[in-house]
Amino acid sequence: MLALIALLLFSFSQSATSSPTRCGSFALRGSAVNAIVTNTTFYRANDTVAITNPFSSIDVNNLPAFCRVELSITTNTTANSTAHADVWLPESWNGRFLGFGNGGFGGGVNVADLGFVAVTEGFAGMSTDTGHLSEAVDGSWAGPHNDNAIVDWSWRALHLSVVAGKEVVRQYYGKPHHKAYYLGCSTGGRQGLKEAQRFPDDFDGIVVGSPANWMAHLQPWSIHVSLEIMPVNSSRFIPAATWAEVIHPEVLKQCDILDGLADGILNDPRKCSSRPETLACRPGQNTSTCLNLDQIHAIHQIFSTYFETNQTFIFNGYYPGGEVGYPQGLVGAVPFPIPQDYYRFFVINDTTWTMDLLNDTIIRLGDSIDPGTMDVIDPDLTAFIGPSRKGKILQYVGWADELISVGNSIHFYETVHAFMQANTHLNIDDSYRLFTVPGMTHCLGGFGANAFGGSGQAAADMPSSSFDAQHDILSAMIEWVEKDVAPEILTAIYWNNNNVSQGVGFTRPLCKYPQMLVFTGGEPSRATSFRCM
Ligand SMILES: *[C@@H]1O[C@H](CO)[C@@H](O)[C@H](O)[C@H]1NC(C)=O
Ligand SMILES: *[C@@H]1O[C@H](CO)[C@@H](O)[C@H](O)[C@H]1NC(C)=O
Ligand SMILES: *[C@@H]1O[C@H](CO)[C@@H](O)[C@H](O)[C@H]1NC(C)=O
Ligand SMILES: *[C@@H]1O[C@H](CO)[C@@H](O)[C@H](O)[C@H]1NC(C)=O
Ligand SMILES: *[C@@H]1O[C@H](CO)[C@@H](O)[C@H](O)[C@H]1NC(C)=O
Ligand SMILES: *[C@@H]1O[C@H](CO)[C@@H](O)[C@H](O)[C@H]1NC(C)=O
Ligand SMILES: *[C@@H]1O[C@H](CO)[C@@H](O)[C@H](O)[C@H]1NC(C)=O
Ligand SMILES: *[C@@H]1O[C@H](CO)[C@@H](O)[C@H](O)[C@H]1NC(C)=O
Ligand SMILES: *[C@@H]1O[C@H](CO)[C@@H](O)[C@H](O)[C@H]1NC(C)=O
Ligand SMILES: *[C@@H]1O[C@H](CO)[C@@H](O)[C@H](O)[C@H]1NC(C)=O
C-alpha cells in the first residue's frame, strides 16, 4: 500500500516536474546497480550537441529534446576498476531500450549513434566507453597485463552498462522499457554476439554488422595479407593506383556481367574466379599498367582461404570486386595497426614484437589464451534463440569489406546453422538471418546500395531512406520481435557520393543469405529491377 502511494506520488511529481528539472536533479536511487550518476545535461530541441571523445564525436543542432545521463560503473570492486556509460533519454520516448557497440580497440561512448539513431528515433539509448579511452586502432591500453581493462573491453563493461542503463531508464521515466535492442558493427558486432551468448536476457533483438568475433584468427589473417605485399619497396608490393586502375577493371571485365548487369558491382563475388594472369606484364610494358609474377602470386594468396602450415583453417580471404577499397584496409602502404597491437599487448606481452615475426606457434597462443574471453566462436545460440527466450539476431556484411573478410560472417552463420540443426529442433531461419550487401565496405560506405540503418551509417551522412521495416534494419528487427514479421528482403539506398545531401543515386534489394541479387531487367537505379534468388 505504502509502495503504491509512493509510486503514485512519484508519477505525479514526475508529470508535474519539467524535463530540464527532472534531468538536472536525476540521481540513481537504491543499490540495484553498482553505478553513480556523474553528470546530467538537458538538451532542448535543436540545441547544439557537441561531444567528442577519442572514439566517437557528434556536433549537431537538430536533435529532439533529451536528457543526457553520464554514469560511472564499478566493474571490479577489488581492483576499483570503472567503466563510463551514457544514457540518452529522449523527451518523447518510444518505450524501447537501445544499446550500441564500439569499434576496434576503441574506448569511448558511441555518442554518434546515440544522437543519430537513438535520440533521433525516440529510443532510450545507452553506450559504454568499454572501460577506457582510446582511438579505435590503439590497443596499447591493454597492457601488458592490464587484465581488468581487457575483460571490461571484451564484454564486462557492456553488460554492466546495459544493466545500469535499464535501471536509469526505469527510474527516469517511472516505468521500465518494454523491449531492448542492440546495434553494433565490427567490434560492435562481436560485442553483440557475445551478449547473445553470455547474457541472453539483456536484449530481445540484436543487430550486428561484420563482427570481429574471431580475433585469434582475424588478426593473424590481417598480418598474413599485409605480409603478402610488404615491404613497400619489394617487387610484390601493389600500389593503390594499380588496385583501382588495373586490377579492379580486369575483375569487372571478367565477372561484372555474371549477375545480369554490368554496373561495376559484383552481387555474388563467390561466382567470380578472376585470373590475374591476364594482367602479366609483356616485355617492355609500362609496369604501372600490368603485374609482375610476384604481384600475381600475392593476389592469389590474398584472395585465397588462409590455412596455417598444418592445413588448419584460419580465415577466409578477400573477395573480388572490392579492389578499389582494399588499399584502405590491409594492403595499403602502411600496415593496419590493430593486429600487431593484439599480439603485443594482449597475447605475447612483448611491446617490441613486430608483425613479421608471426608464426604458427603465435597463432595457437592467441587461440589458447583468448584474452578476456573476447572471442565468440561457440556455434550454440540456444540460450538466446531457444524457446525460453526467443531472441532474434540480424547480421549484415558488405561483400567489399576491406578489414574483415565477408567470408567470416558467412563462416559464423554456417557454423551456427549446422550446429543448431544437428543438435536442436530449432529452425535457424526463425531467429537468425544474414543479409549481404553488394559493394559495401567495412560497416558502411563503398559503391553499392549501402545505407539501411546500420551502425555508424547515419552519423556518416548515409542514413536509411526511411525508418520503416523495409528500409531500416533496426525497424525490421522491431517488426520481427514485436509483430513476429521476419525480414525477407530489405531495400538499401546509395546516396550520391555516399552523402545524403547529394540526393538519391539508386536503390537495391538486400538479399537474405544464401540468396543473391540478380538483375531482372528495367531501370537499373530501381530496386524493383532486381530479384533475390
Ligand atoms: C557536466 O556537463 C556539462 C555540459 O556538458 C559540462 O559543462 C560540465 O562541465 C559537466 N560537469 C562535470 C562535473 O563534468
Ligand atoms: C527545430 O528545427 C526544426 C527544423 O529547422 C524546426 O522545424 C523545429 O520547429 C525546431 N524545433 C524547435 C523546438 O525549435
Ligand atoms: C578483480 O580484480 C582483481 C585484482 O586485479 C583480480 O585479482 C580479480 O581476478 C578480478 N576479478 C574479476 C572477476 O575479474
Ligand atoms: C577508487 O577509485 C576512485 C577514482 O577512480 C577513487 O576516488 C576511490 O577512492 C578509489 N577507491 C578505492 C577503495 O581505492
Ligand atoms: C599476456 O598477458 C595477458 C593478460 O595478462 C595474459 O592473459 C596472457 O596469458 C599473457 N601471455 C603470455 C604469453 O603469458
Ligand atoms: C627496402 O628498404 C629497406 C630499408 O627501408 C632496405 O633495407 C632494403 O634493402 C630495401 N629492399 C629493396 C628490395 O630495395
Ligand atoms: C606508365 O603509366 C603510368 C600510369 O598510366 C603513367 O602515369 C606513366 O607516365 C607511364 N610511364 C611511362 C614511362 O610511360
Ligand atoms: C615463434 O615466434 C615466437 C615469438 O616471436 C618465438 O619465440 C618462437 O621461437 C617462434 N617459433 C618458431 C617455431 O619459429
Ligand atoms: C604440424 O604437424 C607436425 C606433424 O604432426 C607436428 O610435428 C608439428 O608440430 C605441427 N606444427 C604445429 C605448428 O603445430
Ligand atoms: C556531406 O555533404 C555536406 C554538404 O556538402 C558536407 O557538409 C558534409 O561534410 C558531407 N559529409 C561527409 C561525410 O563528407
From TrEMBL:
The EC number(s) this enzyme carries: 3.1.1.-
Listed name of the protein: Carboxylic ester hydrolase
Signal peptide: 1-18
UniProt keywords, alphabetically: Calcium, Carbohydrate metabolism, Disulfide bond, Hydrolase, Metal-binding, Polysaccharide degradation, Serine esterase, Signal, Xylan degradation
Family, as annotated: Belongs to the tannase family.
Catalytic activity of the protein: feruloyl-polysaccharide + H2O = ferulate + polysaccharide
SUPFAM superfamilies given in the database record: alpha/beta-Hydrolases
